[in-house]
From TrEMBL:
Cross-referenced SUPFAM superfamilies: S-adenosyl-L-methionine-dependent methyltransferases (SSF53335)
Gene3D superfamilies: Vaccinia Virus protein VP39
Protein name: Methyltransferase family protein
UniProt key word Transferase: yes
A single GO molecular function term of this UniProt record: methyltransferase activity
Domain of life of the source: Bacteria
Keyword set includes Disulfide bond: no
A Pfam family hit: Methyltransf_25
Keywords associated with the record: Methyltransferase, Transferase
Methyltransferase domain span: 52-143
GO biological process terms on file: methylation
Length: 255
């Protein structure tokens, strides 16, 4: 029985796919939805924008939801190497240049953004680290930053299961709001939300973890962690498994 489970779980192991798409888990995982409408916030912000930057565009999938509103001067950045060529392929037909750039989570001020001062009037950022000081440099006075972030201590349950503690506790609503204000932004709106991810079983959890490998120990695999996975399976009686989900969003205007 255990060997059959392990074989099933091994079948979930694969390289991270291109782009940023969780649709393969649609019937195996559910997640709480935050009470704000990020799409509506994007559309409102894009209404008057002329010079737009999308940070951490992934494969460009989310940005292209708003293709009808994007100005001619739209640029994107991506720092996750497997996604850069995907984003370039997806966004080039829309005249959007993709530039390789990413701010390290542990030291966001260590890498200068590859843009001139006052370059943009709107910066969009969905789940990408950023330097508030660099944003204040590249956003023109009166320009806007609109970001949604994943709480740095979400999925803390993984630490109990596999020994990987949450690595970014400083990524939270209160601190990010304060840092934007300190960098010269009026934080005009924002909120935070705590919900849950629910996976139908251990196999579904493993399928999810293949898409977010940074959430697990560097040596993570079914074979190396089979005892812990089997224990998790027993404790959940082979059924649903939940993890904490955290999101927050902020809108700031450069003074």
């Amino acid at each position: 029985m255990e060997e059959q489970l392990l074989e099933r779980w091994r079948a979930e192991e694969r390289d991270q796919p291109e782009g940023w798409d969780f649709s393969s888990l649609d019937d195996r995982m559910t997640e709480s939805q935050e009470p704000w409408d990020l799409d509506a916030q994007y559309r409102q912000a894009l209404g008057n924008a002329q010079h737009v930057l999308d940070m951490g565009t992934g494969g460009g999938e989310y940005l292209l939801r708003f293709a009808d509103l994007l100005p001619a001067d739209t640029t994107a950045t991506e720092g996750w190497q497997p996604n850069i060529s995907v984003a370039q392929r997806n966004l080039a037909p829309h005249g959007i240049e993709v530039i390789e750039y990413g701010a390290p989570d542990e030291d966001v001020d260590s890498v200068r953004m590859p843009f001139a001062d006052d370059r943009f009037d709107l910066v969009l950022n969905r789940h990408e680290s950023y330097s508030p000081h660099e944003l204040a440099r590249v956003i023109a006075p009166g320009g806007t930053v609109l970001t949604q972030q994943v709480g740095g201590d979400e999925c803390a349950e993984i630490g109990g299961w596999f020994g990987q503690a949450a690595a970014l506790p400083h990524v939270n609503f209160a601190q990010f709001r304060e840092e934007l204000q300190d960098a010269g932004f009026s934080a005009v709106d924002g909120a935070e939300h705590v919900g849950v991810y629910t996976f139908e079983d251990v196999a579904a959890l493993l399928a999810y973890l293949q898409l977010v490998p940074w959430e697990t120990p560097d040596d993570f695999s079914v074979d190396r962690y089979q005892d812990r996975l089997l224990d998790l399976h027993r404790r959940s009686s082979g059924g649903p498994i939940t993890m904490t989900r955290k999101r927050f969003w902020l809108k700031g205007v450069r003074q």
